[in-house]
Every structure is written in C-alpha cells, then in structure tokens.
Amino acid sequence: MMRFIPVRETILGSAILVLLLLVASRFAGFVAPSNLANVFNDTAPLIILALGQMVVILTRCIDLSVAANLALTGMAVAMINVAMPGLPIPVIIAIAIFLGAVMGTINGILVWKLAIPPIVVTLGTMTIFRGIIFLISDGKWVNSHEMSPAFTDFPRMVLLGLPVLSWAAIITIILFGIMMARTGFGRSIFAVGGNPHAAVYTGIDVGKTQFWAFVVSGALAGLTGYLWVSRFAVAYVDIAGGFELEVVAACVIGGISIAGGIGSVGGAVLGAIFLGVVKNALPVVNISPFWQLAISGSAILIAVAFNARAGRNKGRIILKEAEGAQ
Amino acid sequence: MTHPAPTSPDVTPVVSMDMITKTFPGVKALDEVKLDLYPGQVTALVGENGAGKSTTVKILTGIYKTDGGTIRIDGQPVSFTTPNDAANAGITAIHQETVLFDELSVAENIYIGHAPKMRFGLIDKAEMHRAASELLTEIGAPFSSHTQLRDLGIANKHLVAIARALSVDARVVIMDEPTAALSHKEIEELYELVETLKSQGKAILFISHKFDEIFRIADRYTVFRDGAFVGDGLIADIDEDELVKLMVGRSVDQIFPDRAKDIGAEVLKVVGYEHPTEFANINFTLNKGEILGFYGLVGAGRSEFMQALFGITKPSKGVCRINGDIKVVRSPADAVSNGIVYVPEDRGKQGAVIGLPIFQNITLPSLGRTSRRGFLKLAEEFKLAREYSERLDLRAASLDQDVGNLSGGNQQKVVIAKWLATQPQVIILDEPTKGIDIGSKAAVHEFMAELAAQGLSVIMVSSEIPEVIGMSDRVIVMRDGRIAAELSGDEITPETLVRHAAGITSSAEGKVA
Question: What would the pLDDT profile of B90-111 be if each residue is shown by its tens digit?
Fold first, then answer.
C-alpha cells in the first residue's frame, strides 16, 4: 500500500543491496541464495521482535523487557519440556505465546492504569523477569540432551525449502502488514502516536491502545522465546542479554520515529535485515567484531540523523503554517 | 519604495524597523515593512493571520535574522544575531503562552540568566529575593517572591513575566496577545499594569485581535497585511471601521450570517449533571437545528462540563437523553456513537494526525462503518473521505497524501470533515474562533450556520460577546460551575450576558436559574 514502499524504505533497501554487493566483491559465496536464506533465518528472531517493538514505539512507548521476556519464556517452556517431554509442540508454542502475552499485560497495565513512564516500567520488569529466571532455574542451564528431539527439531524443520523459524518470521510480517494497514487497531496505533490528544477526542482510548501494543510485543517475545531456546538448544539466565537494544536499533534504523506515529512494517523488517546482514557478512570478509559494533552504531546514528533531518524539513513547513495561523 | 514618516512624532522612536524583509522557503513573510516604537506609548500591531506579526516579534527578539532592512535603537543601527543581543538592547517579550519555569520560584524566574552574584560567582539569594519583592510590589503582584511558579494562575504568571521584563531594565516590552487566556477582571489588571509601564517610559508593542482593547490602551497603530506594511498613525485619528478596512483591505459590514431559523424537536436533554469540584446542577435542552451558546468567564466550568458531556471526565451524577432515550456516555467513543462530537478549544488537540494520510484522518472516528468483519475496506474509506472532502471543498492533490503537507486551512477542513463523517446530531464547538482573524472567523460562522441549517444541533462555547449574540438562538450563561441564566431572543444583549456572567443581580433580565 501507499506506506509500504516510500522513500525511506527504498533508501534502506538500497543500503542493504550496496552492502551485499560490497561483501560479494570479496566473497561471492555470501550472496548465494542458500546463504542469503541462512542469513534471513538467522535474523528471523530479530525481525519478529522488531515488529512487536515497532507497535510499541509507534504508540510513543518503548519495551525494554522483550529480551528478558524471551529468556524467561524460553526457560519456562524448556523446563516444561523437560518435565513433560510428551507435550506436543503446538501446545508448547501456545504456552510460550501466552506467557509472553502475560508479561506484556503486566507492562501494559502499569503503563495504562498507573501511568508510569514505559521506559521505567520495562526497565523494572526487564530486571524482574531476569530475576525470575534465576529463581525458577536456580541458575542452572537446561541443556540440549535434556530437551526432547521434537522440541529442538521444530524450528529447523524445512517446509517448502525454508526452515520453520524463517516461516515464523514471514507469517508474522504478513499478519502485521494486514494488522497495521487493514484493522482499526492498526489505525489506532498510528493515531495514538501521531496525535494522542486528537485521538482521545476521536474516541480512541490512548492508554488501552498502548496496553494492547505491550501485549502484542510480549506475545511475540514469548513466541521468540521458544524459537530461540529450541534453536540454540540451551536455556539459561542470560540468553539474549542486551538483545532488546538490538531490537530497538532495528526499529530506529528502519525509520520508526522514536517520538511515535511514524513508521512501517517494511521499515522495521528492513532495519532488522540490515543488522542481520552486517552481523553475518563482516566475519565472512574478515572484519573484526569491533567493526561490526561500530557499523551497527553508525547505522543507528545515520538513520536517526536522516530521520531528524526529514522531520526538520517538515518542521519548517509547519512553522510557516504557524506563521499563517499565528 | 520608502515609507512616509508618520505625522510629526514629538519624540524619537526607541526602536525603529525600516524596510525589514524576511523570507522563508517559498514565502515572503515580511516585505520591506516598517515599525516604530516610542517611549511611554503603546503601539498596537494589527493584522490578519499571516500578516507577519509573529515574524516581526521573532526578529525583534533576535530569534530570526532579517534578510534585509535596518533595525535602529535610539537611531543607531544594530544587528541581532542571538536572542541575547536583543535582551541586552533592552527588548523583552511576554508571549501568548508564558515562557517560564514551573519548578522554580518566582524570584528565580525573574532573575534567571542575570541573577545577582556574590563571591565565586555564586547566586546571592537574599539579594535576589529582596530585589524581586521590590519589583513585585511595584507592579502590585499579590504573591511573594518565594512562591513556586507552578502554583500561580496564568494571569499571575504574566505578572512574573512583566516583573522579569522590568528586572532586565527593559525599554521595550512586547506583549503578544497577552489577554488571550485571561478573565475579564485579570484583563483590567493587565491594563493597569500597561499604564504603569507607560508611565515608566517603556515602549510597548501590543499585539491583539481584540479591537476593544486596542482602542482602549493603544496610542498608536501599525497595520500589516500579507507581510507588507499598510499604514500607521495615532489611534486617536482612526476609528474601528477604518482600522478593519486597513487590515483586511475590504470593508466588513456584515460579520454574522443571516440564517433562516428552522428549529425542530428536542435532540438532547441534560438533567442534573454534577461534578464534585467543577460544576453542579446543569439542566438544559437542545433542539434540532439550533445553535445554543454557552457564555461565561474563563473558569466558569463550561469546558469542564462539555468534557463531561463528551465522556472525557465523568460526572458523579446526571442523566443525558438523546432523542428521548437515556444514554450512558462513559467515554468519547460512547459519545461519538451516540452522535455527539466535540471540537475542543486547543488547536493541537483539534489537529489532524500528522503521519496518517488525509483519508485515514477523515475516517478515523468512523472506522466501524468502513470495515467488514474487523477488516477495513479501503474502497469504503476512500468513498467516505471523498464525499466529505468534496463537501468542504478540500484542496489536495490526492486523498492519500500526508496531512502534514497540507496548509493550515486545509488541515482544519480535514478535521471538520472527520467530524461530519461521523454523521453527528450534536456538535460541540469550544471557542471555535479564538485567536483567529476576522476573515477566518466569518468563514467559521458561515459554516456553523450551514451546519444548523442542515439540521445539526450546535453547542457553541464562546467568550466573545459579539459572536455569542450574533450566532446563538439561545444562550446559557454559566457562573462558578452553575447555570446563571438561560436567555433567548431579545434577552441576549451584551449587558445581560455580562451581568449574569459576573453575578450582578440588580434588575435581572431573563430567567435566573
């Protein structure tokens, strides 16, 4: 639709292509379809989480607890699997999504009903969730030999040439595309972030919309929790430590305005893929991990500067209007 | 082109702007304008929206740089590169929304940036409070220098801003619509203060849309139109009609539209609305095709009641009947679905959602009607948006254009289209013409009359007496959170409105509730 392929997404897409060409010039194998599919598969968790985060950021909030939510859900489903190896995988996935959504609900209620700033709420719950993992696991690891084969094999299972993990990301992208463009909830999210005051007078409950954004983000974190733990076949307190910042970075690079109201599914996905390509390509061409971090960091700053400039141009026009309206 | 000197100024201007030009990308905001400010005199800067008044203020206070022309202070050309330069030259501005610091004390607000210092550059608090108290006494402020700014009302914040202006030994005080948010009594106090400033020899630039106050306190006028200088002179030499003509470049004789009053059956009946702290015992009815004015002083509880009626704040008691059926309005969504819409006073709140395209802004409150089984039908949305944007003559290249790229006037049309698309029965307009120029006001009034003619019931909250008298079929006057009077027909006169709003009970006209 109209907000699916605008300028910002085109620029980001071109940046990814340029990056791929640069890497290909030194190591042609990187751009082989099978390897690109691997890179996409590796980036799938980031894509899923970035979409959840996008919804939250669009409503002028932020969810720093996604990685902790992921780790806690992952540990919980791993322990359930150890206790009940016969439990079917769809049930495990349902539990993971449910647990994640419950954690999102906690964030959402604190933001909605107690009006605590989201950054404070999720900083708090992030720490609490990590603490709970330690409590339920006694700090011990759940290792691959303890998990059932069905549990660990599921994300690797190949359907129509792609692993289930990749399909999970693709289905999430499609569902979010529909949700943002074609449902009242999606529209409310943009309205709440774009002009919360106007949204109230339009009959949109700002707090409730933010609440649901957190629930959505939490549910996706829960889903990713299972996918992550089963893919790496290990669960412990610190998995995905600091990953929440990578998720926020993907959104920012993807042009999701941290001030809310501006952003797109395409942008969030491309932001995540950009980080995924950087992470996977640099080791291949023998660039040290330090440069990886530096490049990711620079990409964030460039993206923000670019968006700020776009915003400033708009600001000038508004000033002119303000001049007119005095 | 040079401008002729105004008739025999007996003193030289403190500030003299000559041939000032300021260009923004695509727009010439000021085109070789001139403006002179004289010591001990109030100069009113008059012009419609977009005339360049705010740009002038920003140039005088060093926020914008000029693209051409000279500013002279006491005859010496100066150039301001930062706001500090302007402050050092003795120019200070009191803005529409006062720019002060809520978490600091009054004295700190007055002296921020130029506090008296003692050894090692530390702030001399005792001296600061002493000097601040002196200034506050001078201007008759009813609060101490230790008061936290956030505890003061808007009128008192203005006093702090004025004290600050005096503390920097300002020679030029710019007042940009200082009375916009003040009640009648507070405005009177402000006028006294202006007199005090005049007697101290300050030059005052007074920007206002209210003609009564321009003629009340200004000594001189300067008129801009569309960024160009039109004329200046002494207020004593001009009358309202001539000034309006200069301003708009045409004569405005009939401001309010004639309407064929076709008032139908009762649409809304409000019984016993009460709120613990804001209002009590609100009862009234509203009929089809009627414009019901709500008049009162600022703080009489009108907006607070309207917000309760719209479901934003909850009344502790009260019933509202729509077409005879009792309806519970717990949230704005309830109100919209019951056919009540509210266009609030604050422009930012009325505003469009920047970032959403035009058609999505228009359909935002009507998504229930444009979706099937929870999914939005874009074709339906476009149809609805097209219908209402055509009705309002919206000028846009395409309906999926971002609202942010529209002009202010067209954005306003999008907002109105949004509300009309909900097919409301009752539309509440809170101060619909506050702070806009005469030409735009007439357009809003025209539009309001058209809505009523189409059978909509309009509630108009307004503090402007001419508007209340010119537009309303009936008027409810509120005072201290209660209905003071309900007036209709010939009872609606400036005198009765003011008397009921201010609580003057002698020789009551109209039904006193």
Answer: 888 887 555 788 888 899 888 8
* pTM of the model as a whole: 0.74
For residue A26, the one-letter residue type is R
ipTM of the complex: 0.73
Residue A59 has a pLDDT of: 94
Task: Kindly list the residues from chain B whose CB atom is less than 8 angstroms away from the CB atom of residue A203.
Answer: 331-333, 335-337, 365
Fold of A7-300: ABC transporter involved in vitamin B12 uptake, BtuC (1.10.3470)
Contacts for A241 with CB less than 8 Å, ≥ 6 apart: A67, A71
Q: Which of A201, A312, A319 to mutate to test the interface with B (most CBs of B within 10 A)?
A: A201
CA quadruple B369, B372, B375, B380: dihedral, nearest 10? -50
> What's the CATH code, domain B254-339+424-513?
3.40.50.300
Average pLDDT, chain B: 81
Domains B1-90+171-250 and B254-339+424-513 share a fold: yes
CATH for the stretch B1-90+171-250: 3.40.50.300
A184 with B371: Cβ contact below 8 A = yes
C-beta separation of B109 from B101 below 8 A = yes
CB contact under 8 A, A198 and B353: yes
CA distance A91 to A150: 12
Tell me if chain A has a CB within 8 Å of the CB of B5: no
Q: Does residue B512 surpass a pLDDT of 50?
A: no
Contact of B349 with chain A, judged by CB distance below 8 Å, is answered with yes
Is the CB of B332 less than 8 angstroms away from the CB of A201?
yes
DSSP letter at A146 equals G
Confidence of residue A26 (pLDDT cuts 50, 70, 90): confident
- Inspect the interface and report whether the beta carbons of B350 and A198 lie closer than 8 Å: yes
